[in-house]
Amino acid sequence: MSIADNLERIKSELGPEVRLVAVSKYSTDEEVQEAYDAGHRDFGENKAQDVATRKDNFPDDVRWHFIGHLQRNKVKYIAPFVHMIHSVDSLRLLREINKRAKNENRVIPCLLQMHIAKEESKFGLDRDELNEILTDNQVKEFENVKIRGLMGMATNTENESVVRGEFDDLKELFNELKEKEHPLIQADTLSMGMSQDYKIALECGTNMVRIGSAVFKS
User: Fold this and answer.
1) For residues 84 and 65, what is the distance between their CA atoms, to the nearest angstrom?
2) In the predicted model, what is the mean pLDDT of residues 111-115?
3) What is the rounded (10 degree) CA torsion for 9, 11, 12, 14?
4) What is the DSSP string of 86-98?
5) Is the CATH number 3.40.50.1970 carried by domain 3-216?
6) Could you tell me which of 22, 133, 154, 217 has the fewest CB atoms within 10 Å of its CB?
7) Angle at 16 (CA atoms; ends 13, 20), nearest 5 degrees
8) 136 phi/psi in degrees, rounded to 5
9) What is the DSSP-derived secondary structure letter of residue 190?
């Protein structure tokens, strides 16, 4: 099947309420162009300098999502154009994003990445670290970032009950976040689900999925 066919099939499964971020980090510009020509506009990358270079090869209506682990010294490369940063996993990183966004006279939408998996190698906040960000008085004064929701990656396992439990926990946290009164919070995005587990994520209430191989591999 072509990339256009893959996109059509996946979007029909997702329905109109779930946004698809096509993870293009391992794809060629030609493959991304094929997805673009099929009408797709949301693409996910995980290396700041790579996407800063790649964006110049495509029209300005592409929405570039940064989905990988982001080092503070790399924020400057994506601050001028990034549509959303999915992987805010520390207070220090959020502070740096706010600073760089202010320099660009932008407000950058961000997702707080939660550590929901059993694997220690995955990044993300725990509940205490999330609370630290939400109660920090300096954070409440940030004017150039907006917390739009949460992102999480489930354990890489074939045990669907484990994955489902982790997604359910993240959905519960997201619901709690939506209820909080905070000047930075506009919680409307729950980003969970990738090629191997997005169907479970759909059942658990995601409204954004990050899918690479199922889009770009025939």
Assistant:
1) 5
2) 97
3) 130
4) EEE-SHHHHHHHH
5) no
6) 217
7) 65
8) -70, 125
9) E
Domain ranges of the chain: 3-216
Nearest to 169 by CA among 209, 127, 111: 127
161-175 residues labelled b (16+ CB within 10 A) or e (exposed) = eebbebbebbbebbe
pTM: 0.96
Half-sphere exposure at residue 24, Cβ-oriented, CA atoms within 13 angstroms = 30
- pLDDT band at residue 118 under the 50/70/90 scheme: confident
Residue holding tokens 């109660």? 135
44-53: b (≥16 Cβ within 10 Å) or e: bbbbbeebbe
Comparing C-alpha atoms, which of 26, 28, 30 is closest to residue 46? 26
What integer is the mean pLDDT of 176-201? 96
**Which pLDDT score, from 0 to 100, does residue 38 have?**
97
Phi/psi of residue 145, nearest 5 degrees: -135, 155
Residue 84 near residue 150 (C-beta atoms within 8 A): no
